[in-house]
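Table S5 (text form). Sequence records supplied for joint modeling of the two-component complex.
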Amino acid sequence: MRILLAEDDPLLGDGLRAGLRQLGFSVDWVRDGPAAERELRAEPYAAAVLDLGLPGLDGMEVLASVRRAGVSLPVLVLTARDAIPERIRGLDLGADDYVLKPVDLHELAARLRALVRRAHGQPQELLRAQGVVLDPAGRSVSLDGQPVTLATREFDLLQLLMLNAGRVLSREQLEQQLYAWGQEVESNAVEVHVHHLRRKLGAGLIQTVRGVGYLLQREAPKP
Amino acid sequence: MRRLRSLQARLLALTLGLVLGAWLASALVVWLDTRHELDELLDAHLAQAAALLVAQQVHEMDDGPGIDAPSLHRYAPKVAFQVFHEGRLVLRSANAPAAPLLDAAEGFRSGLRSVRIEGQAWRVFAAHGSERDVQVYVGEQLASRASIVWAVLRGMLTPMLLALPLLALALWWAVRRGTQPLRTLGAQLRQRRPDSLLALQLPDVPAEMRPMLDALNALFERIAALLEAERRFTADAAHELRTPIAAIRAQAQVALGASEDGERRHALQATLQGCDRASRLVEQMLTLARLEAEQAPAGAPVDLLALARRVLAELAPAALQQGQDLALEGEQPCPVAGNETLLAVLLRNLVDNALRYSPAGARVQVSVSQAAGATRLLVTDSGPGLDEAQCQRLGERFFRVLGSGRDGSGLGWSIVRRIAQAQGARIELARSAALGGLEVRLSWPAV
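The corresponding structure-token record, covering 670 residues in total, follows.
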């Protein structure tokens, strides 16, 4: 999952980026308000972690501005401001979660996963489709009860398709949501990962809509 | 005597005591005065009576029917007279003895004398005729004079003593009424919640209580301000520590979860950096708290140049490591009145700030000079400087120039401001003409 991290403190930003990466997220890190606003409007992130004390443009203003612009991605506000009115204002302005510093990395990751899951209308922790069960927290996948080993990118791609089950995702969309800045994207990376997934989980799981993109459906299509 | 605890009782006792004292003093004066006047008058009467008797006896010596004169008034026993002719008693009042009223042994002397006769005090006037054959004594019991004086005093003191309880009651009422505002204040203070710091409101405060009330209210205000500052400080401090602690925590978790050595090393180093930053923050907060709590007394004059040399020597190694050029300018000792420890903290913060916010290779220059008694200290750097709005906000607690990429706490400036103020120095910020960065000017007026 690709996450935007907006944090101006160099040490904390560095730590959060490294930590979230370890936990399987792709992380883009911006250090000021205007950049956060720009990226949130332009790039397809699964969620954002937003510090409130951002230089240039306060986190609250960033949030209000992108919400006005119709950006609906889940935003987790991470802040040192603990006054109740601040929290209420943050939530009212469109934050989906409000977390006080310091935060445990695992908790932050779990909250992000929960936010993303809920944003995709998936109340349950495990994602299920056609006998495939994906555990976002444990980063494990099983097929008909048998564990299947997937590479990092394959897992991320499968999670993305399962979160968006029933919707066609273009190759560009998939690439944008899989890779953070500075990560090399080979021209046919998505095709290669889809190919591997089909081989491990069955050819019928992911369907290709020629010229449009890929689709994963919760129920197996009728033969 | 035990001191009276109650103001009311004290006032009452004082007033009553003074009234009584004044009455007694006036009674004493009346007593002395009356006695004096009475003595003069009655002595004159005695003398006159004696003169009459002498005159009469010279002419009508042997014509009387006997020697005892009749008593004509019920007060007569208090008065007595004797007339002797050639040593023989020829006339006396009924109560007079046969012997002369004055002891003849001492020899006859005319004039007034006070004597005791049969246990009574008498005032006797002796006189003699021109041939000295007639001697007349006229006496009067002194007790009668005393009773007259006492009667006068009684007449004066009795109504006063009768009025005393009434007066005491009236005074008690008046004192009670007069001290009512004090009791109101006491009641208000008693009813206050112990943590209330609102100003006391008293309607119609007497002028005498105004200073006390004003002082109390000023005290409440000061305590409220202190508490507020304390609360704000604690809140700010807790708040400000969150970010470094969050960073330490995140980096430590990254180190724990790292699969490669390089990544682990990086995270651990960042953890250490975070710890350094947090402890620096704590140190600065403590300095600031100490500064706000106490007014350090000024000791002997401090030589700013020597002090600057010492502080720069401390900071130079770190500056050199960053490739920064640190220099001190100054020729003669520049003594200023102030506290050496605090001035050192101020200087260290100024130079540390300049180094911290200037890039590698930057120049930081400190110059100390004295002209016409006024002392000047400049800390100049070739860093990015500050715009006007930033200059304005600098010195607000925890204000940091955001996006500066530096992990300052925003407290250094609060400390600098606070010390400069306490040490009587003026502080100004400007863009440095020579180096292009920030120039901090501290100036002490000529003494």
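Note: The radius of gyration of chain A is 18 Å.
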